[in-house]
Amino acid sequence: QVQLVESGGGLVQSGGSLRLSCVVSGRTFNNDHMGWFRQAPGKERELVASISWSGSSPWYANSVKDRFTMSKDFVKLTVYLQMNRLKPEDTAVYYCAARRLTSTDFNYWGQGTQVTVSS
Fold it and tell me: Residue 75, CB half-sphere, CA atoms under 13 Å: how many?
């Protein structure tokens, strides 16, 4: 089992920045994939960034590319999502998730952290 705990959400003005953290515990392998998802009210959950512990280049959704940066620290078993130039449409609950290399689905989820961007 894998446990994920996010932190770092909050209220920020448009154009501001926030950094989310996700601490991972439990049975973790260096080829697991980590992802940041978000879900806005009335919308489906979407993947915004992902990376494997052993990989070098994160993947980003077009909506956040060039504004968000996902990074990792395997020693601390922590992944981060640096969010810059935030927009009101970035308002959502952000979730950290993990999947095994052999799985196509993210099976492990954090509780989520609220990010609210005011205009």
Answer: 0
